[in-house]
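Need the bound structure for phenylalanine, inputs here:
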Amino acid sequence: MQRDGFKTRFGILAATLGSAVGLGNIWKFPYMTGENGGASFLLVYLLSTFLVGLPIMISELVLGRTAKANAITTYYQLPKKNKNFWSLIGIGGVAAAFLILAFYTDVAGWVYAYVYKTITANILSTNPEETSKTFGSLISTPLTSLFWQWLVLGVVGLIITMGASKGIERTTKKLMPLLFLFLVIIVVRSLTLPKAKEGLLFLFSPDFSKINAQVVLLAMGLAFFKLSIGMGTMTTYGSYFRDDANIPATATKVMLADLSVSLLAGLAIFPAVFTYGYEPQAGPSLLFITIPAIFASLPGGRIFMLLFFLLASFAATGAMLSLLEVPVAYFCESKKMSRTKATLLSIAILVALGATATLSFNVLKDVKFFNLNFFDLYDFISSNILLPVGGLLIALFAGWTWGKEKIFTTLSNYNTLNNQKIISLYYFVLKYITPILVFIILLKGLKLF
Ligand code: PHE
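Answer from helper R.:
Posting the output first, comments after.
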């Protein structure tokens, strides 16, 4: 049977970008930047993106394309020795996909709910208390928040059953361009708010006293999360790449576009935070309580807010497709399930696991591990442990085990691309800089030494 894959160059870019751009950019990036000191956090984040994120993304894409297989099979098939050890990368990846989806579908549910709320009621207000109340009542009602999560799972599951080209590629090709357009419109609005300057200063002037080992780990974890690396998503997508795709160029474009979306999201949110007296440290609720204020004093504000949450739902959906594709591709190829069955099984697991995350804001709110509820725990374990460890192993495998020659031939598409210099630079960083940085940041950040 012929393996499905992305058909066009634009489709490859859109799907990969669709994976990278998501709630990580629109929801996580602004609130984490807000909680951890603004510009200094941004700087560490940028360094992690260039020195850790990009090299690992290129590696995953090329390994996946070479193996033409799901994440677990890729890391079993490519090594000549210690196959079982390396395939742990894929196994950890499938576990990470479920953990991330468990809380991600919850947040995506809030986004879908805000689309609905914006249409059916007037929830715009510049009063922090009021917008916090609207958000609070959504997450504290068990059945309502579960309902939205299930809806999200249904939508994502449906698209996934259609396959890589007809489902993922076709959807993301339409959604990605719209997302950019909407975001630019919203930023223009936000930058014309009275205290826009304070928001910009917060985002762009660094306060280095806020940086410590934990913050560095958080920034690196965010880079992993945002670029969808360290867990086999990019490996799986790489396996759908055409053989003539220019991987270093595609990865660089995706990284830059992903960065722009995050910065745009920051530019959209922080001017409003300062204009209306919100707390930049509001945490995960930041997006949901500030956006209704941005548009409150604007003619046609409700339409703009609708655009914004639609956009966020597109971004979230594209990212969830790529997360769900990791286990689904594995179940189909290695367990010989049909796509529908593989999807149903994954969704069933997520209904159960996801409920623990969603209910951690209401019925399960007193259940804590290391002082974290289920939602925060899944987030912490995936972003700050599983993805960096996976990324470290991928860098070690690509840089030290797979071999220089394979890297050079595959990344140059068997010498049809004239990109030897770029590959040399990538290879050097991947081999000597990326693994050392990840290793030290992990140990220090987790206080292991
Ligand atoms: N990159 C996605 C986002 O920013 C999330 C994601 C993480 C997707 C890991 C796939 C794998 O929202």
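Comments: The mean pLDDT is 93. Residues 154 and 176 are 21 Å apart (CA to CA).
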